[in-house]
Specification:
14 helices; about 300 residues; single chain; globular; mainly alpha
Length: about 300
């Protein structure tokens, strides 16, 4: 794979740090008392607001004004898929455990590999596929540890898994646009589009925009700064330098961090099978990332 330019710092390390940030997402969502759609709305809206000074400076405005219609439409579609992703995933946390929800939503490589192969012609080595398969196996073990079938838990599991599809499409679109667009103008347009879609959705369901207690505002701000700007925005930066599947498979590390945080905050105790799954995820990620980096150095 050819990169557009030499990255200013290691994109693989950046992806790892982003995974750590995104691992806090489920915790903040669970702590908030707001409607799932409203949590997503403020998360996206505040993220766009915080990034506006960087996206709307002179060079950013010039780049946004120079975008062609197809790129603008693609970015708006990416925002739509991101909005739907957060909607279904936030809702899933009301019905199922943090571990099951984060595991199922990070099954996105199943969609990324398939869609990337057919639409982007992206290929990965056999060793990379083995690492990805190992990480996916670990995710299944983590989910199996507290996987609940029937009733509300089943609905939560279905919502979380559907979120994997929507975030996969979002990343695939981002991969194409990030080759041509700078980071801040791109994410500002995507987050802004997601905010607009979520605003309409909240109006349709009648979710209140205010008032909320101070702690909810703290969780909204934390969601914007840590998992969104520190997580998703860094993912978007990395998409300029690495394959979509590298970012996607790395996110499989999210259940590990989320499981630890859920234990510390909610006392959701991981069992032996879940801990084994976490170890397998880390091993699979290591194999995949080392293989992917070696492959890119040799192309």
């Amino acid at each position: 794979m050819e990169t557009v330019e030499k990255p200013p710092f290691n994109p693989y390390l950046a992806v790892l740090l982003a995974v750590m940030c995104v691992s806090t997402s489920a915790i903040f969502v669970r702590l908030s008392t707001a409607h799932p759609l409203m949590i997503a709305f403020y998360r996206m809206g505040l993220s766009a607001l915080f990034l506006a000074p960087f996206a709307l400076n002179r060079s950013g405005r010039k780049e946004l004004q120079g975008m062609n219609n197809s790129d603008i439409i693609a970015a708006i579609i990416a925002g739509l898929f991101l909005a739907v992703h957060f909607t279904v995933w936030n809702t899933s946390l009301e019905y199922t455990s943090v571990a099951s929800s984060t595991v199922l939503v990070t099954m996105q490589p199943l969609f990324v590999v398939t869609l990337g192969y057919f639409f982007l012609k992206e290929k990965i080595s056999t060793k990379s596929i083995a690492g990805a398969a190992l990480a996916l196996t670990g995710s299944i073990l983590v989910g199996a540890a507290d996987f609940q079938i029937g009733g509300k838990a089943l609905l939560g599991d279905i919502l979380a898994f559907s979120g994997a599809f929507f975030i996969a499409v979002y990343f695939l679109i981002g991969r194409q646009l990030r080759v041509k667009l700078s980071l801040f103008p791109y994410v500002f347009l995507v987050y802004g589009s997601a905010t607009a879609f979520l605003f309409i959705a909240n109006l349709l369901v009648g979710a209140p925009f205010y008032p909320y207690p101070p702690l909810d505002w703290l969780w909204f701000i934390a969601l914007a700064i840590i998992p969104t700007i520190g997580g998703h925005t860094v993912y978007n930066w990395a998409l300029r330098y690495v394959k979509t599947i590298v970012v996607s498979v790395s996110i499989l590390g999210e259940p590990v961090g989320a499981t630890i945080l859920a234990f510390l905050i909610f006392r959701e105790t991981p069992g032996t099978l879940q801990l084994l799954g976490d170890l397998i995820i880390i091993t699979g990620l290591y194999i995949f990332l080392i293989s992917a980096r070696t492959e890119e150095k040799n192309t």
